[in-house]
């Protein structure tokens, strides 16, 4: 069969272009560290890679949510511990202020000190983490606690005369998606499928009142401190004693709330470890589906480069000389 110069040249150019394309694609793989850059190059792996990427993004978002939640819980716990320390100080001061030898002037000084401590607790109860109130439950527009006409209010509702937490405005739980399979039951979140991030100030500090030996005593720690200060000024030592005993009992409820914060924080740690492990596995799967072995590709790249150089050298023998070659 007769092989013409034109057919030989066409065959050479096809090989030249193929070798150049192989080298260029290999260089691109080494630069991008990806096996392919277009879905059309590997539709099967690309489809699976997109699924892995979506799961990876979701898990990274869950991890971000957990870190934010841990910061919020840590701040809430710190403020609650500060309240606990203040209550210890109140108890220590009052013990010395209800003896029979305490003068009215001394009781007035003590009452002023208790009032100042009460204001500190009120500030802690209205503390913020970023732009969010820590103890406002589902309300984030205004400070949760306020004193209106001498009465303590939570989200605009009187604290001491309300014995049902459901009657407080915006005292609902707020949940965060941390990868537990968030599901809805009607218009509500399934509490088992999400993490409760909110903390209600009235659950922590108390609400309503209790009748003790015929006397109505508030259950809220701030209100009790206010009552103690008032009773010290009037010299009603018997009432101070009753309120102090009630304060001690309600302080235990505060410690239970602090323990609950710690339990929630531990739960977040366990989930963070799980998600971090999932992220590592997903990244490994992503690397397998999209990534390229640099060592293996480097070997291929050298062979493609060698084939390209050999092709160029063959060109001088296959392509016929032109007049310009003779003019050199």
From TrEMBL:
One of its GO terms (molecular function) is structural molecule activity. InterPro entries: Flagellin, Flagellin_N. SUPFAM superfamilies: Phase 1 flagellin (SSF64518). Residues 3-139 form the Flagellin N-terminal domain. Keywords: Cell projection, Cilium, Flagellum. GO terms for cellular component: bacterial-type flagellum. It holds the Pfam family Flagellin_N. The keyword Lipid metabolism does not apply. Transmembrane segments: none annotated. The keyword Cell membrane does not apply. This is Flagellin FlgL.
């Amino acid at each position: 069969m007769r092989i013409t110069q034109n057919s030989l040249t066409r065959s050479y150019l096809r090989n030249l272009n193929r070798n150049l394309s192989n080298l260029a694609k290999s260089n691109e793989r080494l630069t991008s560290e990806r096996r392919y850059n277009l879905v059309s190059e590997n539709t099967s792996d690309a489809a699976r890679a997109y699924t892995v990427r979506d799961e990876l993004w979701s898990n990274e978002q869950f991890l971000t949510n957990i870190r934010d939640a841990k910061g919020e819980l840590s701040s809430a716990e710190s403020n609650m511990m500060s309240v606990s320390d203040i209550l210890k100080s109140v108890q220590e001061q009052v013990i010395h202020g209800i003896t029979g030898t305490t003068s009215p002037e001394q009781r007035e000084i003590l009452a002023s000190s208790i009032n100042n401590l009460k204001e500190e607790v009120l500030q802690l109860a209205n503390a913020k983490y970023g732009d969010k109130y820590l103890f406002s439950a589902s309300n984030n527009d205004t400070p949760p606690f306020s004193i209106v006409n001498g009465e303590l209010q939570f989200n605009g509702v009187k604290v001491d005369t309300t014995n049902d937490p459901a009657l407080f405005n915006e005292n609902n739980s707020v949940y965060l998606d941390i990868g537990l399979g968030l599901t809805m039951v009607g218009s509500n979140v399934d509490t088992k499928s999400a993490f409760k991030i909110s903390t209600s100030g009235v659950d922590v500090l108390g609400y309503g009142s209790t009748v003790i030996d015929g006397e109505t005593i508030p259950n809220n720690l701030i209100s009790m401190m206010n009552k103690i200060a008032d009773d010290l000024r009037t010299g009603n030592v018997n009432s101070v004693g009753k309120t102090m005993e009630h304060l001690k009992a309600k302080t235990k409820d505060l410690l239970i709330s602090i323990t609950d914060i710690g339990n929630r924080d531990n739960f977040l740690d366990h989930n963070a470890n799980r998600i971090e492990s999932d992220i590592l596995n997903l990244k490994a799967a992503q690397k397998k589906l999209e990534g390229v072995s640099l060592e293996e590709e480097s070997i291929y790249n050298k062979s493609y480069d060698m084939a390209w150089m050999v092709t160029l050298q063959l060109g001088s023998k296959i392509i016929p000389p032109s007049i310009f070659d003779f003019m050199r």
